[in-house]
Specification:
Blueprint (H helix, E strand, L loop, with lengths): L2 H16 L2 E2 L2 E9 L2 E8 L4 E11 L1 H9 L6 E4 L3 E5 L23 H9 L5 E2 L21 E7 L9 E5 L2 E3 L5 E4 L1 E5 L4 E2 L2 E2 L4 E14 L6 H21 L1
Antiparallel strand pairs: 1-2, 2-3, 2-5, 3-4, 4-15, 6-15, 7-11, 8-9, 9-12, 10-11, 13-14
Length: 243
C-alpha cells in the first residue's frame, strides 16, 4: 500500500471527525429517547454535553423531574471516535450561575452562554430591529424559539418561589408590548393572586457535565480502512483490464 493511499485514508478519517464540529460545539453521537434519536452535542469549552431535544412546556417541578430521570430512559449511541466520562451523576436543567442577572447578554448562565457565545445569536427587542435567531443555521436541530427553565431559584422574598428562565424568544405584554430574544428573567413556580394561579410553564432542555471527552486516536481505525481499500483495489484493476 502506497504512502499516498495511507495519506488519503488518514485525511478521510480526520474529515469524518471534523465534519461534526461547529466551533466549540461537536456532535459526538446520539441518544435514543422515546423511539427517536437526538444528537449529543459536546461543548468543549464549558465541559458540557447537551441533549438536542426540547421537552414540551411544563411546570418547573415537572421539568426538573424530567431532566433528572432522563438517564434511565436514554440509549446512548456515542460515536466510536469519542470516549465520554460524565462528571454529573445525572442529566439536569441548565444552571443560571452564581449571580444571574435580569435582561439581555446574560451569559453568566449555561443557556445564556450557549445562546450568545456558542451560537452567536443577538439579544434585544424586535422593535429595536433585532432579528430572531436563525435556529436552522445552528448545530442544534431541536431548539425552539421559546422560554426554557433553568435549575436556579430566584430571590425567595415572594411566595411565588421564582426560578430563573432564559427566553430564546418571549412576547411581553404591558407595558412593553414587544418581542425579545435572548432574555433572562424569573417566573413564578407557585402561588396565586385573587385565586388565579401564578405558576407558569416553560420548555425544558437537558445538559450534563463531563470530566473528559477523549478523541480516540485515528491510527487505530486506519487498519480497517486500509484493509477495505486493499480488497477493492484488485477488483478495480480487473475491471480496468476487462474494459
Amino acid at each position: 500500500m502506497s504512502m499516498k493511499w495511507m495519506s488519503t485514508v488518514g485525511m478521510i478519517a480526520i474529515l469524518v471527525v471534523v465534519a461534526a464540529a461547529h466551533g466549540d460545539l461537536s456532535i459526538i453521537g446520539t441518544a435514543t429517547y422515546q423511539g427517536s434519536q437526538y444528537n449529543l452535542i459536546w461543548d468543549d469549552a464549558s465541559a458540557l454535553v447537551w441533549l438536542d431535544y426540547t421537552n414540551p412546556t411544563a411546570y418547573w417541578s415537572n421539568q426538573m423531574a424530567w431532566a433528572t430521570g432522563l438517564d434511565a430512559q436514554l440509549t446512548y449511541n456515542v460515536d466510536p471516535t469519542y470516549a465520554v466520562t460524565w462528571s454529573d451523576a445525572a442529566w439536569r436543567l441548565p444552571s443560571a450561575g452564581g449571580a444571574p442577572s435580569y435582561g439581555f447578554q446574560a451569559a453568566t448562565q449555561e443557556l445564556g452562554d450557549l445562546y450568545y457565545n456558542k451560537l452567536g445569536f443577538l439579544g434585544g427587542s424586535s422593535s429595536g430591529g433585532v432579528p430572531a435567531p436563525d435556529l436552522d443555521a445552528s448545530v442544534f436541530e431541536n431548539l425552539d424559539l421559546v422560554g426554557y427553565w433553568t435549575s436556579t431559584p430566584g430571590d425567595p422574598i415572594f411566595s411565588t418561589k421564582p426560578v430563573w428562565m432564559f427566553a430564546f424568544r418571549e412576547t411581553r405584554s404591558a407595558p412593553c408590548y414587544d418581542t425579545v430574544y435572548g432574555f433572562q428573567d424569573v417566573d413564578a413556580t407557585s402561588g396565586s393572586f385573587w385565586g388565579i394561579p401564578l405558576a407558569v410553564k416553560h420548555s425544558g432542555l437537558a445538559v450534563r457535565g463531563v470530566s473528559d471527552v477523549s478523541v480516540v486516536p485515528l491510527p487505530a481505525a486506519l487498519p480497517l480502512a486500509l484493509l477495505g481499500l486493499g480488497t477493492l483495489a484488485p477488483m478495480i484493476r480487473r475491471r480496468r483490464r476487462a474494459g
